Structures are given as C-alpha cells and as structure tokens.
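Case study 2.
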Amino acid sequence: METESTRQQKVARQLQKDLSEIFQHQGMGAYDGAMISVTGVRISPDLSFAKVFVSIFPSSKTENVMKIISRNVKSIRMEIGKRVKNQLRIVPEIAFNIDDSLDYVEKIESLLKK
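Prediction:
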C-alpha cells in the first residue's frame, strides 16, 4: 500500500472537515433523521478522486441514507467546490462508502458477551 503525501493528507483532512460541516448544516431532516459522521477520506495522488467513508446512525437507515447521499452527490461536490476554490484547482470526484467499523465492533462485543 502506498503512503499518502503530506499534500494528500492535508487535502483529505480539509475535505473531511468540510463534508462534516455540510452534513451538519443540512441537518438530520435532509437524511431521513439519521446522523452522518465522516470518518475518513482517502484521496488519489493527483487529488482528482476522493473516497469518503461515512458512518450512519442509526445503522438501520444506512441503505436509505446512502441513496439520498448518492442523489445529492453533485450538490455536495458543488458545495465542496465553493469551499476549496482557493486551495485546489480541481474539485475531486467523490465516492461515498459505508464505514461499518462501529457495527463490526458491536458484533464482536456481542459475541464476546455470550
């Protein structure tokens, strides 16, 4: 696995912060009453593609919320563009992925309790 450059790390952190603010600003009502946390961002070396990991609570709404996010990906990307226009020449394409590590932790804990 390749290590990320300092520039990639900085851009990824900025995207994570901006996306978190966008989801918070839009509110839970826009996403079926679910809370969305941006848990991580991986960005390509040329900064043109960002893989965004989100955690959704409650997890029972994950599928529906992901549909809403995918329908809104253009407007989310446009909002990111407004925020990073002075730092980046191109706004990266964004792909949203589920971060199910919390579900995994819960499953392990429940198995250990048995």
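The chain has one domain: 6-113.
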